[in-house]
Design goal:
- InterPro entries: HATPase_C_sf, HATPase_dom, His_kinase_dom, PAS, PAS-like_dom_sf, Sig_transdc_His_kin-like_C.
- By secondary structure, the protein is α+β, with helices and mostly antiparallel strands.
- Helix content is 52%, strand content 20%.
- Among the domains are: 154 residues, no CATH class; 144 residues, Histidine kinase-like ATPase, C-terminal domain (Heat Shock Protein 90), CATH 3.30.565.10.
- The strands form 4 sheets. Strands 2-1-5-4-3 form a 5-stranded antiparallel β-sheet.
- A hairpin with a 3-residue loop joins β13 and β14.
Length: 449
């Protein structure tokens, strides 16, 4: 609509200029000099008006893109004007500005959220570019190395020459145990350097921790995997936003010059609106992803009580039977001894068992004679346990170490938070969750209390 009104304005003005020019020439040859003067004045006025109209439109678009470039979203154009085309153009620019501002604010909030996660992490993390510049270093790594601020790998030479030698080639390396001595005493640091790709740039992600104080090697690997998954999910969301934004910008600029308003087509306007809608949806998806991570981090302490194992598993069976969108499978309950009770948070453990049961149902969706067993008992170490077992296709050995990593999933739907959340709940209960799988024979998840 904006493009059409501007086009009509241009056509009408050019017609008036043409008529004025023809009239001036006609009256001149007819020797009607007063009429010629009037026509000439009208011609000059119409030409000046056209130039003003075009410059006004171009200036608004130029101001808009300058404001976006400088991250200034306070620019507003008046929407109550006598010229309909300019009024609609101003309205469209204001809407576009508001949408871009909303996306920018969400992106800033997400960036601050992730930075806060890394800042609060109990392991040291920093990233290095191919030139050796340290782009980010959280406070933990600076405390471990007793040096701040960290801006370049050459600074490691001031800490220890052997430590610097690890990074001198700026090449990734496997987990290395390094002994560092300083005025705070001797420390054994576990250091791992892994390559990651962000916006077509290869960076080195370095994870450092004091193995006597914090995490073991397996937990460090989990952090690296987690950050990889986070990076993957974020890039999958941000990449189309960048691509669509570039496409929309190409409608308004050619090289360093702005496109004239009369060259805008209705298709370009429609495509721009659709592209902005996609950008909005991608931003919403990313916010949902962040919310799922927030749920993972904010799990409350368990409110424990004695719960009958039989009653608990019967409730899980009823809930699984209500999953109408999944193929029905046979569900069995085995409790020994029958009067077994467990000290746990019923709501949280119900969430864990229901998630495991749904996973089992989905794995048996296309299988005949599928069976799920809900089992409770006491193991050889006199520990009480709950087990969800099925006879589905199982889990490959390659995925066995990955399934508890937050956001890792092999499904087309879901966030991949279920198993990692289950593991977190069991940690809060002072217990463990383990998996055993023999493909096509049985797969079991065991909760040990």
């Amino acid at each position: 609509m904006v493009s059409r009104n501007i086009y009509l304005q241009m056509v009408l003005r050019i017609i008036f200029i043409t008529v004025s020019a023809v009239a001036a020439v006609y009256f001149f040859f007819e020797k009607q000099y007063i009429a010629t003067g009037i026509a000439t004045i009208l011609l000059i006025a119409q030409t000046s008006s056209l130039i003003y109209f075009v410059n006004q439109t171009n200036r608004k678009i130029a101001y808009f893109f300058d404001a976006i470039k400088n991250e200034d979203f306070t620019l507003r154009f008046p929407e109550k004007l006598s010229v309909k085309s300019l009024e609609e153009l101003n309205h469209s620019l204001n809407m576009l500005n508001a949408m871009i501002q909303d996306i920018y604010v969400k992106k800033q909030a997400q960036e601050q959220y992730y930075q806060e996660i890394l800042r609060q992490a109990d392991i040291g993390i920093f990233t290095v570019n191919p030139k050796g510049h340290i782009l980010y270093a959280n406070p933990t790594v600076q405390d471990l190395l007793n040096y701040r601020p960290l801006n370049h790998v050459k600074q490691l030479k001031m800490i220890d020459n052997e430590l610097y030698a690890l990074f001198a080639d700026l090449a990734p390396f496997e987990n290395t145990i390094y002994k560092l001595g300083n005025e705070r005493g001797n420390r054994e640091l576990s250091i791992k350097c892994t390559p990651i790709n962000i916006e077509e740039n290869t960076l080195l992600l370095v994870v450092v921790h004091d193995i006597h104080k914090e995490l073991d090697e397996k937990e460090t690997d989990s952090w690296v995997k987690l950050i990889r998954v986070l990076t993957h999910e974020i890039m999958n969301t941000i990449t189309p936003i960048t691509s669509i934004s570039e496409s929309i910008l190409s409608y308004f600029k050619s090289g360093s010059k702005l496109i004239e308003p009369e060259n805008f087509s209705q298709d370009q306007i429609n495509t721009t609106a659709k592209g902005l809608e996609v950008i909005k949806n991608q931003g919403s998806d990313l916010m949902s992803f962040v919310q799922s991570y927030r749920t993972f981090l904010s799990m409350p302490e368990p409110d424990k009580e004695l719960v009958s194992a039989l009653s608990l598993l019967e409730k899980i069976k009823i809930l699984l039977d209500e999953q109408k969108d999944l193929k029905k499978v046979k569900i069995e309950i085995l409790v020994k001894p029958v009067e077994l009770e467990l000290y746990l948070d019923e709501k949280q453990i119900t969430q864990v068992l229901l998630n495991l049961g749904k996973n089992a149902q989905q794995s048996l969706e296309n299988q005949e004679n599928g069976t799920i067993q809900l089992i409770a008992g006491i193991n050889s170490n006199d520990k009480k346990y709950l087990k969800v077992q099925d006879n589905g296709p199982g889990i490959s050995s390659e995925l066995m170490d990955e399934i508890f990593v937050p956001f890792f999933t092999t499904k087309n739907t879901g966030t991949g938070i279920g198993l990692s959340l289950s593991k977190q709940i069991m940690r809060l209960h002072g217990g463990t969750i383990k998996v055993q799988s023999i493909p096509t024979v049985k797969t079991s998840f065991v909760l040990v209390f």
